[in-house]
Amino acid sequence: MSAASDEQKTSSKDASGQPAGGDPRLDALVHRLPPRLAGTVDYLLQPSSRWVRIPSGALLVVGGVLSFLPVLGIWMLPLGLALLAEDVPALRKSRSKVFDWIEHRKPHWLDPSVPKNDQS
Questions:
Q1: Is residue 117 in some structural domain?
Q2: Are 108 and 118 in contact (CB under 8 A)?
Q3: What is the pLDDT of residues 37-94, one digit of tens each?
């Protein structure tokens, strides 16, 4: 298998060359995830996965609201909102503000040269 075909499999860019989520900062954060999780997020961010993304986002938001129950957690709320932001313009503006905050306060999160599992 060639390096070019490996690169196509791991790239989260669509046919137009844009990052799957439409924001290079989101693409940078996704690439910091473990490979298996990054592949799932890449799939969910593809435009053709809208029919999976919206229900998944809604279920994660509900799970986050019910975080007082065992197994569910507050971590589900921001993840669900991030998934829904792909399809809801009002949430997309909020997501952009969060990315601006990350860019100013935690720029190392977006730096591809920092090891993926850096705990800082």
A1: no
A2: yes
A3: 888 888 988 989 999 999 999 998 999 999 888 888 888 888 888 889 999 888 988 8
Specify the number of domains making up the chain: 1
- With vertex at residue 120, the alpha carbon angle to CA 79 and CA 31, rounded to the nearest 5 degrees, is 50
Q: Which domain holds residue 103?
A: 23-110
Q: Does any domain span residue 55?
A: yes
97 found inside a domain: yes
- CB contact set of 27 (below 8 Å; sequence gap of 6+): 12, 13, 19, 20, 21
Look at residue 9 and tell me if it is in a domain: no
User: Cβ distance 28 to 40 under 8 Å?
Assistant: no
Q: What is the pLDDT of residues 1-40, one digit of tens each?
A: 444 433 344 444 544 445 555 788 888 888 888 888 888 8
Rounded CA-CA distance 78/69 in Å is: 17
Q: What angle do CA 58, 61, 10 make, to 5 degrees?
A: 70
Q: Which residues are 13's β-sheet partners? A: 19
